[in-house]
């Protein structure tokens, strides 16, 4: 298949570079161009300061292509840290990529930075195409306080309350400063499409003994109670089917659908249908404090990589591989979206991605809804 071949070419080129420059796997992930600042060493637990340093390095060596700034004009984190954004590309389609909204989910920041660096330095034709068609907005560390504390949440300065920033984009109001800052910026940018990067605990692909390395997620379940009433029911399924087709034969990747409450003995799992998740609120066009009066909305999906840095499930050995898988999935989806290839996928191919038979939906507005009763909500 045409797309698969293109992908394998990228993967093979990356492998050759990896062998050639085995002292720096970071450099190996820059297909089409040598690393101009090989002294930058990205490891699995980038601190806030290291992220800023890398962003500044990328900006400096990008020949004006990458613009790094803070969101200080909208505010800062609960502990007073600036939230950073990097912008690259000159095209009209606006693509939003955010990582580490959960502070103990580390490798995704590295993957986002590697992709930013590719866009900054690579002369590869696919990359040039993306930069002509789109402008990309990267938020590589959404939750700097949580990242520094190595916890999922942020902590509200005033009362010490722990807030999950990915449940905080609600009409009733944001509890954490970070939510207000990023939301206000989002309302200004008005993206066309967003990808949100996460880590998850260990699970296995349904019907196999393979450990899931990567899950594809849509936070309002496709064909479920909420998404089927929006314009994004098909496009989100197409996006994930596209990524699955492109990556399923790559290396040791074991991809499945993101689900929760999985029970292997009973052979059941649940989809999530949460309205307060950031990518959900984007699809629902949240208008908070009248910052989004037109109700701008857009499709948004998320990726889940195996393991996190709190429960010790990340092994040094696999980190490079997990990051690369994330990087390739991101790069592939951006290309497929920008070129319109995603739009040619059959939405029903979503059901080719392995998943546990659906027992119901876990929601943040009506508890658990059994499958089949979804349309009543
Ligand atoms: Zn997460």
What does this protein structure show overall?
The chain has 377 residues and is an alpha/beta fold. It has one domain: Zn peptidases (Aminopeptidase, 3-Layer(aba) Sandwich). The radius of gyration is 19 Å and the shape is globular. The termini are far apart. 49% of the residues are buried. Bound molecules: zinc ion. The site of zinc ion (ZN) has 3 residues, from loops.
Labels describing this entry:
377 residues, alpha/beta, Aminopeptidase, 14 strands, 33% helix
What count of structural domains? Answer: 1
Number of separate helices: 10
Rg, please?
19 Å
Instruction: Give the overall silhouette.
Output: globular
Ligand inventory reads: zinc ion
- Return the average pLDDT rounded to an integer: 87
Low-confidence stretches: 12-43
Which CATH C-level class is it? Alpha Beta
Q: What summary fits the major beta sheet?
A: 8 strands, mixed
H/E topology pattern: HHHEEEHHEHEEHEEHEEEHEHEE
Structural class: alpha/beta
> What's the total count of β strands?
14
Query: What is the fold named in CATH at topology level?
Result: Aminopeptidase
CATH arch. level architecture: 3-Layer(aba) Sandwich
What percent of residues are in strands?
A: 15-25%
CATH superfamily: Zn peptidases
Q: Helicity range of the residues?
A: 25-40%
Instruction: Report how far the terminal alpha carbons are from each other.
Output: 40 Å
Tell me the strand order in the biggest sheet: 1-2-4-3-7-12-8-9
């Amino acid at each position: 298949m045409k797309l698969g071949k293109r992908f394998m070419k990228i993967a093979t080129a990356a492998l050759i570079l990896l062998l050639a420059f085995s002292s720096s796997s970071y450099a190996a992930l820059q297909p089409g161009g040598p690393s101009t600042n090989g002294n930058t060493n990205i490891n699995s637990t980038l601190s806030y300061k290291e992220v800023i340093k890398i962003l500044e390095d990328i900006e400096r060596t990008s020949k004006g292509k990458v613009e790094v700034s803070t969101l200080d004009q909208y505010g800062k984190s609960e502990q007073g840290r600036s939230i950073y954004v990097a912008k690259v590309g000159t095209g009209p389609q606006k693509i939003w990529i955010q990582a580490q909204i959960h502070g103990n989910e580390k490798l995704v920041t590295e993957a986002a930075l590697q992709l930013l660096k590719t866009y900054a330095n690579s002369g590869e034709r696919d990359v040039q195409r993306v930069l002509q068609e789109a402008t990309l907005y990267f938020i590589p560390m959404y939750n700097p306080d949580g990242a520094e504390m190595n916890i999922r949440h942020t902590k509200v300065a005033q009362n010490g309350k722990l807030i999950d920033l990915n449940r905080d984009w609600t009409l009733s109001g944001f509890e954490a400063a970070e939510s207000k800052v990023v939301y206000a910026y989002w309302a200004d940018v008005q993206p066309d499409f967003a990808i949100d990067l996460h880590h998850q605990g260990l699970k296995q692909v349904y019907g196999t003994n393979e450990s899931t390395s990567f899950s594809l997620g849509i936070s309002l379940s496709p064909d479920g109670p909420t998404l089927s009433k929006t314009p994004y029911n098909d496009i989100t399924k197409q996006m994930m089917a596209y990524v699955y087709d492109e990556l399923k034969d790559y290396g040791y990747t074991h991809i499945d659908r993101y689900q929760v409450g999985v029970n292997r003995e009973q052979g059941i799992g649940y989809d999530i249908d949460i309205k307060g998740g950031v990518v959900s609120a984007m699809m629902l066009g949240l208008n908070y404090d009248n910052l989004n009066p037109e109700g701008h909305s857009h499709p948004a999906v998320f990726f889940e990589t195996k393991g996190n840095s709190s429960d010790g499930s990340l092994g040094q050995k696999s980190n490079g591989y997990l990051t690369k898988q994330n990087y390739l999935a991101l790069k592939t989806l951006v290309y497929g979206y920008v070129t319109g290839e995603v739009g040619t996928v059959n939405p029903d191919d979503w059901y080719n991605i392995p998943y546990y038979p659906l027992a119901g939906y876990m929601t943040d507005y009506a508890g658990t809804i059994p499958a089949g009763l979804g349309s009543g909500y």
